[in-house]
Structure of N-acetyltransferase domain-containing protein:
Amino acid sequence: MVREWDPRTASSAEIASLLDTLNAVLAADLPQDPPWRESSLREYLAEVMPGERRISWIAQEDPDADGNPGAILGQVHVLLLGNIGVLEVLVHPTVRRGGLGRDLVLRAARRVYQEGFESIGVEVVGDTPAVAFYESLGFTQEYVETRSVLDLSGVDWAELAEMSTGVGAGYRVQFHPGGPPDELIEAYARAKAEVRDIEDGELRPSSYDPQRLRDSLDCLHRRGMKPYIVLALHEQTGEVAGLTEVVVPAQHPTRADQYDTIVVQDHRGYGIDRAIKARMLLELRSAEPQLTEVQTWNAQANEAMLKVNAELGYRTDRDWCEYSVDVAELVHRLDATR
Ligand SMILES: CC(C)(COP(=O)(O)OP(=O)(O)OC[C@H]1O[C@@H](n2cnc3c(N)ncnc32)[C@H](O)[C@@H]1OP(=O)(O)O)[C@@H](O)C(=O)NCCC(=O)NCCS
């Protein structure tokens, strides 16, 4: 049975059952990834940025003879933001290839269509069944990134300490657990805005104005995801010359996610990229001692960033692709094949 589902009011048993399915999916498709934990999972699924909405459906087994609710075997949610719906679908490996994935997408697509949105986007992990699945539904690839993973047990900490000090004169490198301090929010947002102009076109929106940045940090905290920031301050102007962001999610606290790393155009060539990333890893070592890995996503074309990551010890993992589809065409195609 497929029904609309609200994580805010769901029972703890449903949240636990969804976690089991998510971990079965990870074990099947991404066996090297750490399993997720239940901490803040409800908040992770429920909390959104102001102006955004997430709508979810679950596929649940029928209750057993004693009336106990059945397991959740599939889930879809769509995040409505701007003019696009961003989709995520999960089907338990034991019930795949029976049409459930397609059914779940149809539920979400109909709603996105009714709400007047034109397109649906989705992140598709390379080398998993999701690629053939979305292509069979008419989604087309828009953009490919490479995920890389750093195993912290292989890091040469002495070398890293040296890298972290190798920044040109006139810059001060600072560590800010929790997010940038209020007095730097505007300068921080300006640094992000500049790069947004160059690298626009991603599903994951960057926060480029001060209010959006505050909202985004607040949303991360509510979802149980702890942000850490290292920035390079240009002492003469007080401008943020470079920044790097890592988030440690309560749901998988042994593997952190690298978010944006930015060096503002005028400040390139002074070793900022290498120094801020090295400083971040050194700080995380004491702030998050349970951490064993950091993962990051980069465009293939971003050779400078890939070079620094390789020096730090990151190993290329797999492709991470963005696909999209016109909603009306998708609904039409799915209805026609029912
Ligand atoms: C992608 C996914 C949702 C598909 O679910 P599903 O219930 O198996 O999909 P369906 O049965 O509706 O398949 C629809 C069509 O997609 C295509 N397809 C799906 N899986 C496929 C596979 N493994 N190989 C080739 N084609 C496939 C087929 O054309 C299929 O139609 P057919 O079975 O009539 O040939 C499921 O594999 C899944 O949950 N993957 C994990 C997705 C994810 O988010 N991962 C991120 C963390 S790893």
